[in-house]
User: What shape does this take?
Amino acid sequence: MTFDFSKLSIRPIHSFNFTYNLMRSFIDHTETNIKNSVKHFIEVGLEIEEIEICPEDNIYQFVEFYMGLDNADVDLEDTFTKYFPSLQRRSALLTLVGTYEHEIERFCINYARQQETVVTLSDLKGKGLERTHLFLKKVVGLSESPSFIALKRIILLRNSCAHNDARCVTHDEQPIQPLKELVAEHSELLEVQGKEIILKEGLLRYVIDLFDSYIKEVEVIIKKS
Assistant: This one.
C-alpha cells in the first residue's frame, strides 16, 4: 500500500500512510480486546448465587451473575459475547471514520492552498466526507467512485451509532432503507437484533479497506492530471 505523490508539492503520502497504519493497529487492538473479553466470559463462567425463598419447603432461587449484571436483567451470554463487542466496535467505528474525515479534509485544504485553486473547501456546502468528496470532484477531477458509494452507507451507519443507538429505523420508527440494504449485502459483518444493528468482527477492516480504496482512486486522478 504505497501512495506516490512525490511529484506534487504537497505530500499526503505521509499522512495517509500513517493514518492507515495507525488505524489498522487500532482495529487489531480493538478486536484482540474483544476476543479476550469473550474468552474470559466463556472460561471463567458465571457466578451463581443461591437465594432462599422458602427453606422449609426446599424452595430456592438461583441467580447467575457476571461483571455486575445478572440474568434477571439481561441475557448474559448474548450481552457479553455479542452486544458488548458490538458496542466496542461502534466506538471504534466513530474513531475510524472521524480520523479519515479529518485527514481527507486536511489534504483538501493543503491541496487548495499549494495548488492555488479557485475553489476552496470552505466555499462548498455540506460537512465531513460529503463536502470533501464534492471538493475532490470539482477541483481534483474525481468522478466515478465505487468506494464513495459504499462509504456513504458507512457514514449512515456511523451516524446511527452516534445518534440513534445503531438502529436501522428513524426516531419515528421509519425504516432506513440504505442501512437495511447494507446489512443484507454484508450479513457476515452485520446483523439486526430487533431494531439494532450488531457490528461483527471484520466490519472495521472492511471500512478501513474502503477508505484505502477511496484514497487510491484519488491517487489515480492526481497522477493523470
